[in-house]
Design brief:
By secondary structure, the chain is mainly α. It is built from 7 helices and no strands. The termini are far apart.
């Protein structure tokens, strides 16, 4: 019987770290992330608790650094991508035009998210390098903005508030 990579990886670490210790480590990291996000939102002039409400928090973040319409476009594309992908999975249709629609919506969501992240970096006085860090290591990005010396400078110019 051949063992898959995932199984061999899991078996190599099974029993190494007691479950309560693992839960404490993950919980501690999550708490640090929440506190960093809280501080980041406060630097933007918003209440820190906004980070605790996922959709509302993301809406307020995008609205503050870009515009509210961008959030709704992203939400509609993401919802469409999920619904079309679910339809394709349930019907096992691999040659359907819906596959192209689903892929286009997923790409559109990714692009809008990337632009919003770039605008957030610019609003804190950073550039493309910080945006790349946000894509690769989002928790570190949030901790730098929250705990670091970064200050909310301004919302990106050229877009009306919505």
């Amino acid at each position: 019987m051949t063992e898959t990579f995932a199984n061999s990886f899991a078996h190599s670490f099974s029993g190494q770290i007691p479950l309560p210790v693992l839960i404490a480590i993950v919980g501690g990291l999550a708490l640090i992330q929440i506190i960093a996000g809280w501080k980041m939102y406060q630097k933007m002039g918003m209440p820190g608790w906004t980070i605790l409400i996922p959709i509302y928090g993301q809406y307020m973040l995008v609205k503050k650094v870009w515009c509210g319409k961008a959030f709704w476009a992203e939400a509609i594309l993401m919802t469409g991508a999920v619904i079309s992908r679910t339809y394709l999975t349930m019907n096992l249709a691999t040659d359907s035009p819906m596959m192209l629609v689903s892929a286009a919506m997923a790409i559109g969501t990714f692009v809008l998210s990337l632009v919003a992240l770039y605008k957030q970096s610019k609003a804190f006085g950073h550039g493309v390098g910080m945006t790349i860090l946000g894509v690769i290591a989002s928790p570190i990005y949030t901790m730098i903005l929250g705990f670091g010396k970064s200050q909310f400078v301004r919302r990106s110019a050229g877009y009306a508030a919505a």
